[in-house]
Write a structure and sequence with these properties.
The structure holds 2 protein chains of 2 kinds. Chain A contains 11 helices and 14 strands. The longest helix of chain A has 16 residues. Helices cover about 35% and strands about 25% of the residues of chain A. In chain B, the strands form 7 sheets. Chain B has a 7-stranded mixed beta sheet with strand order 3-5-1-12-9-10-11, with helices on both faces. In chain B, strands 7-15-14-13-8 form a 5-stranded mixed beta sheet, sandwiched between helices. The longest helix of chain B has 28 residues. Chain B is globular. Classes of the chains: A alpha+beta, B alpha+beta.
């Protein structure tokens, strides 16, 4: 780890102004940033820790929408009675991220902002059609994820919370990389009054993406049988030592069926 | 003492220390004025070093010294050695290139040591290491063991043309050829025994500390055999004479073989401590462990088994290419030769065996002994052959094995080993019952109803442990004897210190060796301390590997107890004023036959030290005895493991559903610890079969260099094991023990792959059987068979 200055602002406004005065990285749990810094793969002159900002934490339900603070840990989401009641599949997703250490430090905001192509939350945010709220604006999920480790966020922009419309049903099925337990393939399916949204993580060469063919088929007939004619295109999927693109494509189909139930 | 002695499942004495965080590992030790070493390692698999510019690094804050191979050479520090000479079939000695601790002119694998930076703090050493400017002329790399010998391949060492270290063989080729010519059936298989990264929980570490006042060196190191480390560092590498070099291996957190070897890092740290006049500490990071700890296995084999019409085996032949990596590690040459081919007879009567092994260099991390060391590779060959032969000839795999079991002992195999005892059918019968083999068909049908494939696989393994009779291994090329030493120091009040040359790095010697003392001397285990791992305390020892500490190490302790009892009887006879041959010793008490005189062990110890009651002309004061025990034979643990797997046809995921193990380890000192060894061994074997596998890309980059990509087995990957024992006591050592540390890792890979191929209905899959590999194999099931 290279030397850096550590900042722990007590409010969102302080954090935002700190970002304007120093060049640095936001720390939102640190489950990616800290290991990368320890390996000297990431370097930051300043680290601005969002951990003290209470306004960014917690889950509340307002009408038909769930509001999840960006600094809410995976463990909190997994155990939240509100989430379990409103979107039980989301609590289940959070409950199988990483291991207990990761779940007690890692946050939804950190995970989504990092947009690692193998993590779970982006699939949920995209499938749920959530809104990503920052200290500057509101961004629709469909506009947020722009590629591997890439998002619509500006350098000085801080995610504050997510607004997740409560769907009729939501399920996330993950095929874990045997070694890392990140998603080799993860498929999230949200069924809403306005249609079905399907998002795939772990597999796409450009990160999380929607499976529009499957959405159309399921929109017409929400059943595994409806997917029989849906072909999973392997041409834009990742290939690595754990899973080549054709196997990933096959797993997308399997996980999709299991998510539909 | 039966509640504490041999056979009692006593809880481990050392665990209080370990589970409360009070273990003393090398990294826990800090010396006054300590500096920190960071190694500059090669990013290339094969390259000529054209220059090393250390000027910027030397100017970096906190740097105490930077050294390269030139500095080692200038101080006449020798290279690392391989301690077992193998001769090729044409009689020529193996062809080994030099193995400098810091590269001289060339690097030969990713992670090879180029320079060491010593600084005041670890962070400063890391900062400076990044400023060491090494210019490389990158060369093509030889990576694949199967093709490294081909013409036109890059040459790893000029000394080994064609990257061939040796072309060794064992057995009677003519007899085997004749057997195959007349066989009714020949089964032939191609196998890859995948390369493994040991990944002990504690990474390797070293602290070198030079004392200018006494002109002595001390090295704390994560070693399974500190005396061997001292011998090599002293006599071969030339750090200092043995009496000027103390090697301490304190608590060590797992080794699995990878901490037997004498590596560059400890060599450099102890040498550099004199150069900088300060203690020098190095602790491996996990990624360094992936690159620089010796790997295991990595064989490519073609094997054939010949049967007569009745199903009796008439011959076996195997041809193996063994990847030794870029340099010969300490015992690398012996693992795929004398620790491998002599085990190919398995538990079977095989009249003719012939095995050829080419040891080859590649631009990869050196390969050496890893839990089982040669014996898992041999078991994989014979047990895969047995299963496939049974399938091809329509025989039940259990009964086919039984038909060929050795039943008469002693049994001389055609490949060196003389099995002393065993009852293979007893293990098989017990395992079949325990596994409920007869109901397998019902379970398979239930799996099929869920859309899953179920398979069952056997592995009837044998291993040669208790390594090893010194004259025997000497005749085969070993550079050392493989006896063990013990010294028993009885204190005046009757408490005991046992000094042993064995080394405990997870085995539980502090408990099991104390149990041996409890049985033999009647002293409770909490009055016994086991001292090990320090060359200044223990005179000499050969360390712990090859399941040798019970059979050899504890046997030495037994021999020393016999001397203690003999001396005690002389002291007791004098005290009780009876003849020496009138004194009996039992359960901690000396008694004079035909009288009511008796003395406790403690009373005799006290009298031995106060020395008031005997003639010093006849009896020396004190009660301390030592023994060097050299085993008469290897020991031959054996057993039958049965794996049952269920494969999810949609994803290719293999679930290990049931595991049955019936092992014959002879006499058990602590059954609980033995079971723990079996659990860990099976998990490692399942890991090899399902999850683990070091992979290099074509340029020689290790692409599985972290736990993100290299999959270690976790608790959830294995079922609750169904383990029982049988026992035929070993006749060649005083305890009747055989050794248990490697059995699971030896048995499990074959059982797993036999189960998976049984489920698939074909043999076209290699380890590790990852979900993707199984999914691809599922596509190869003939359409009819899949219905």
């Amino acid at each position: 780890m290279y030397a850096f200055d550590y900042h722990r602002p007590q409010s969102l406004a302080d954090a935002a102004s700190k970002l304007k005065t120093v060049s640095g990285r936001l720390l939102a749990g640190g489950q990616t940033l800290i290991p990368a810094m320890k390996l000297r793969l990431a370097q930051a002159d300043n680290v601005v820790d969002l951990g003290a900002i209470e306004d960014l934490k917690g889950v509340t339900q307002t009408g038909s929408s769930l509001r999840i603070g960006a600094m809410t840990t995976h463990a909190t989401v997994a155990e939240s009675p509100v989430v379990k009641q409103a979107i039980p599949g989301l609590a289940a997703l959070a409950a199988q991220i990483g291991d207990p250490h990761v779940r007690n430090r890692g946050t939804i905001g950190g995970s989504v902002a990092n947009n690692d192509p193998a993590v779970d939350y982006p699939a949920a945010v995209l499938a749920l059609g959530a809104t990503v709220n920052t200290n500057q604006r509101a961004i629709a999920a469909d506009d947020f994820f722009t590629g591997l480790f890439s998002t619509a966020l500006a350098d000085d922009e801080i995610i504050t919370h997510f607004d997740c419309p409560v769907p009729e049903s939501f399920a996330y099925m993950k095929f874990a990389n045997p070694a890392s337990r990140f998603a080799l393939v993860g498929v999230a399916v949200a069924r809403t009054t306005s249609g079905v949204r399907v998002a795939v993580t772990g597999a796409g060469a450009s990160g999380v993406y929607r499976l529009k063919d499957a959405e159309a088929a399921l929109g017409a007939n929400f059943s595994a049988a409806a997917l029989d004619g849906v072909k999973i295109d392997a041409s834009n999927l990742l290939s690595d030592i754990h899973a080549e693109a054709d196997y990933r494509a096959h797993l997308v189909g399997v996980m999709l069926r299991r998510a539909v139930g | 003492m039966t509640d504490q002695g041999i056979g009692a499942s006593v809880k481990r004495k050392e665990d209080i220390r370990f589970i409360t965080g009070k273990g003393q590992y090398v990294d826990d030790i800090n010396r006054q004025g300590q500096t920190y070493a960071v190694f500059v390692r090669s990013p290339h698999a094969h390259a000529a070093i054209t220059s090393i510019d250390t000027s910027a690094a030397l100017a970096s804050p906190g740097v105490v010294g930077i050294f390269t191979g030139e500095d080692l050479a200038a101080d006449k520090i020798g290279g690392l050695i391989c301690g077992w000479m193998i001769h090729s079939k044409d009689g020529t000695p193996m062809k080994a290139g030099p193995h400098p601790a810091l590269a001289q002119g060339k690097v030969r694998y990713v992670g090879d040591h180029v320079a060491v930076v010593v600084a005041e703090t670890l962070a400063q050493a890391k900062d400076a290491a990044e400023k060491v400017d090494v210019a490389y002329d990158v060369l093509p790399a030889a990576v694949d063991p199967a093709s490294t010998q081909a013409s036109g391949q890059p040459q790893v060492h000029d000394e080994a043309p064609g990257n061939t270290v040796y072309q060794w063989h064992l057995g009677d080729k003519a007899a085997v050829d004749a057997a195959f010519a007349n066989a009714a059936h020949v089964t032939k298989i191609d196998l890859v025994n995948n390369r493994l990264v040991p990944n002990a929980m504690e990474p390797r570490a070293a602290i070198g500390d030079y004392d200018a006042g006494f002109d002595t060196f001390t090295l704390w190191t994560t070693s399974q055999n500190p005396h061997v480390a001292r011998l090599v560092l002293s006599a071969f590498i030339g750090i200092a004479p043995e009496h000027k070099l103390r090697v301490i291996a304190p608590d060590v957190g797992g080794g699995f073989g990878s901490k037997i070897f004498i590596y560059a890092e400890e060599t450099v740290c102890v040498w550099a401590s004199k150069k900088v006049g300060r203690p020098v500490k190095w602790t491996a990071e996990r990624s360094e462990a992936f690159y620089a700890d010796a790997h295991g296995r990595d064989h490519v084999t073609t094997a054939e088994l010949a049967l007569d019409a009745s199903g009796k085996i008439v011959g076996l032949r195997a041809r193996t290419i063994a990847n030794l990596g870029a340099y010969l590690s300490t015992f690398a040459s012996s693992v795929p030769t004398y620790l491998y081919a002599p085990l190919l007879s398995g538990q079977y009567n095989i009249p003719a065996i012939y095995c050829e092994v080419d040891g080859v260099y590649t631009n990869t991390t050196p390969v050496d002994a890893y839990r089982g060391a040669g014996r898992p590779e041999a078991t994989f060959v014979i047990e895969r052959l047995m299963e496939v032969a049974a399938r091809e000839t329509g025989r039940d795999p259990a009964e086919f094995r039984r038909q060929n079991f050795i039943t008469q002992f002693p049994h001389q195999t055609p490949v060196i080993m003389a099995y002393d005892t065993g009852d293979y059918a007893a293990c098989l019968d017990k395992a079949l019952t325990l596994a409920d083999y007869k109901s397998f068909g019902e379970r398979k049908a239930m799996s099929a109803a869920k859309g899953k494939l179920r398979g069952i696989g056997f592995s009837a393994y044998i291993e040669a442990c208790g390594i090893a009779p010194s004259r025997a291994v000497g005749s085969l090329g070993a550079g050392v004897g493989l006896w063990e030493s013990a010294e028993i120091r009885v204190n005046p009040v009757g408490t005991i210190e046992v000094l042993t040359g064995s080394h405990s790095h997870g085995q539980g010697h502090e408990t099991t060796f104390a149990q041996v003392i409890a049985s033999k001397l009647g002293v409770p285990i909490d009055q016994v301390s086991i001292v090990h791992g320090d060359t200044d305390k223990v005179q000499m020892g050969m360390g712990t590997y090859g399941s040798r500490s019970g059979a050899v190490g504890a046997s030495a302790i037994v021999k020393a107890t016999e001397k203690i009892i003999a001396k005690g009887k002389r002291v007791a006879a004098a005290c009780m004023e009876v003849e020496e041959d009138q004194v009996d010793f039992d359960a901690g008490e000396f008694s004079a036959r035909g009288t009511n005189k008796k003395m406790t062990f403690g009373e005799v110890a006290l009298q031995a030290y106060v020395a008031h009651k005997f003639d010093p002309e006849k009896i020396e004061p004190g009660l301390k005895e030592g023994s060097f025990y050299d085993p008469k034979n290897f020991t031959f643990p054996s057993g039958v493991h049965i794996a049952e797997v269920e494969i999810d046809m949609a994803t290719g995921v293999t679930k290990v559903d049931r595991w049955t193990a019936v092992d014959d380890f002879g006499v058990l000192i602590n059954p609980m610890i033995v079971e723990g060894q079996v659990h860990g061994g099976i998990a490692q074997g399942v890991g090899q079969a399902l999850l683990e596998g070091a992979r290099y890309d074509e340029t020689g980059q290790l692409v599985t260099a972290s736990f993100m990509d290299y999959c270690m087995p976790r608790a959830a990957d294995v079922p609750s094991f169904n383990i029982e024992m049988t026992s035929t006591p070993c006749p060649s050592n005083p305890l009747g023990v055989k050794g248990c540390g490697e059995a699971g890792a030896i048995a499990a890979p074959a059982a797993m792959m036999n189960a998976i191929t049984n489920a698939l209905g074909h043999e076209d899959i290699a380890m590790p059987a990852t979900p993707q590999a199984v999914w691809r194999a599922l596509q190869k099931i003939p359409a009819k068979a899949a219905e």
